[in-house]
Amino acid sequence: MHTPPFSAGAFRALGEEFASATVVASLVNPQIERINRALVETLRLSSAELPEDDFKRIFSGNDRDANTNAFAQAYAGHQFGNFNPFLGDGRTATIGDIQFDNQTMEVQFKGSGKTPYGFRSDGRLGVEEGGHEFDLCEKLSALNVPVSKCLCLLSGDDQVYRSGFQRSAVLTRLAPTHVRFGTFELCFFRRNTADLKTLADFVIARCFPELDAEPDDDNRYYLFLDKVITRTAELIAAWMSSDFVHGMMNTDNMSIVGITLDLSESRFLSDDRERSSRIELRMRERYQYDNQPTIGLWNCNVLARALSPIIPEHRIRDALSRYEATYLKAAG
Question: Is 117 helix (H, G, I), strand (E, B) or coil?
Fold first, then answer.
């Protein structure tokens, strides 16, 4: 029996304020539905290094050793413009870290059961939902739009109800970090400046190491905010040029490193997929395609406010003032 191909996630070491341990729910009789063969080869997870039975056991939640350090992240967020301080990973669990292209990536299971932040959710994922997200990740990646990487989608014999019964599934996705704008909002809501700095330092060390050498805290955090705003503007310009609609641009769905996360409600303009009338109506009001650049700036303002205890006001204004020019340049 092969050991899990990843190590304990570094984010968990930040403490209970940021994440909680969670139990991973496994699939019954797991089968591979989708697999990113190129990524499997890069990570040395092909059948030559990891037999298929071991692969299915690990990435279906059936390997106890792989799930020992599983955790769910805590965060807040503005949802449809309204602040909610009581959010977090409701049906995703970060399993650990893995090395990819000379960087460390988090390995996350989506659909692996209820977490401490799941509230009324069952924490599971339907195979059709998972296939939708996997396929969109593949399409966005082919268009060179920054997006989390989907490694595989496995289904099981157990059923979930999503406007009809379908097989349950676990989607494995990778990202440099799954920290969101809303993670910083939670620290701000708690009025915990020390945690704001801890979180910023973690993201900088992991994803913006060029800023680590900056000796002045005010300047380092300002440059961090500036980079996040730049990447966000460039990301949304890429969405627009690809006719992509994220559909759920709440601040708890916005990546702090400027990649596309959480694609359950996403689509391309050419996609006629049936959608919930409630979500569709709210999308038209706030998150429709044409509004994405404006919402991106609005979200950056929310993040800037969350970082205001550690960045001088005039520097925040300076960073925010460059969003529009950055977006227009990226949009061509």
Answer: coil
